[in-house]
Amino acid sequence: MLKSAHFNLSAFPFLKHPSFTFRGTNTLQDKRPNWPKPLSLRSKSELARAHSLETMAEESNRTALLVIDMQKDFIEGGGSLLVKGGKEIVPNVIKAVDVARQRGILIVWVVREHDPLGRDVELFRRHLYAAGKVGPLSKGSEGLELVDGLVIKEEDYKLVKTRFSAFFATHLHSVLQGAGINSLVITGVQTPNCIRQTVYDAVALDYQPVTVIVDATAAATPDIHLANLFDMKNIGVATPTLQEWSEPKA
């Protein structure tokens, strides 16, 4: 017949805690709350999910979303700068911004803004500016405003450029380096000009990876858009759809 076990608890002060009781002869019952499982007891799926969340957080901290030229003169205007495919991508650009905010990704609003007399405009466009004539994207004009649904928030960064590339004659590279950014996601218009030039400069500056969301960027025609995406893909640029980019990585 088994005898009840007797223990000298003085040698084990932690067992005097009210959360511990003895049941039966020699069974220790732990009544503590459900603490997190030790790593060794977690399932493979739990560990994989935890690793995925940690990886996503790390990637978000070193990634910036560039929203390029989503301004009324490019998207809604009837002038020479209108990008015909631009209006169709507005909902997807809004969605990309929402996803970036949820992930804690830095959002950089890249916009054109020109001197009313066109003194900082490319030579081939200067005929659009003159005294008494409001040229496209002139400072103070309605055309340089972002389209409805896109709003710059306090934690975002606004960058003004006067050429195709967001890196040309701007301080974008130093801002990104100072924030620890080495990965870029590109949205906006238009693919053969500002998107392409910015992407090629980003690749030349060793940002990795550089991603262009194919249905959150646009050109005058689908053929032009696809041809430029083909070229960028050939230099190592990722070209996911918005849905593919938005879904958490397994």
Tell me about this structure.
The chain contains seven helices and seven strands, in the order E-E-H-E-H-H-E-E-H-E-H-E-H-H. By secondary structure, the chain is of the alpha/beta class. A five-stranded parallel beta sheet has the order 5-4-3-6-7, with helices on both faces. It has a two-stranded antiparallel ribbon with strand order 1-2. Helix 5 (about 190-205) packs parallel to helix 6. The protein is elongated. The mean pLDDT is about 85.
How much of the sequence lies in strands comes to: 15-25%
Largest sheet: 5 strands, parallel
Category by helix and strand content:
alpha/beta
As residue ranges, the low-confidence spans are none
* C-alpha geometry: elongated
Distance between the termini: 56 Å
N-to-C order of helices and strands: EEHEHHEEHEHEHH
Radius of gyration: 28 Å
Helix content: 25-40%
Topology:
Blueprint lengths: L19 E4 L3 E4 L13 H18 L1 E6 L3 H4 L14 H14 L2 E7 L44 E5 L10 H7 L4 E7 L1 H14 L5 E9 L3 H12 L8 H5 L4
Parallel strand pairs: 3-4, 3-6, 4-5, 6-7
Antiparallel strand pairs: 1-2
Helix pairs in contact: 5-6
Descriptive labels:
single chain, 250 residues, alpha/beta, five-stranded parallel sheet, two-stranded antiparallel sheet, elongated
What's a concise summary of this model?
The protein has 250 residues and is an alpha/beta fold.
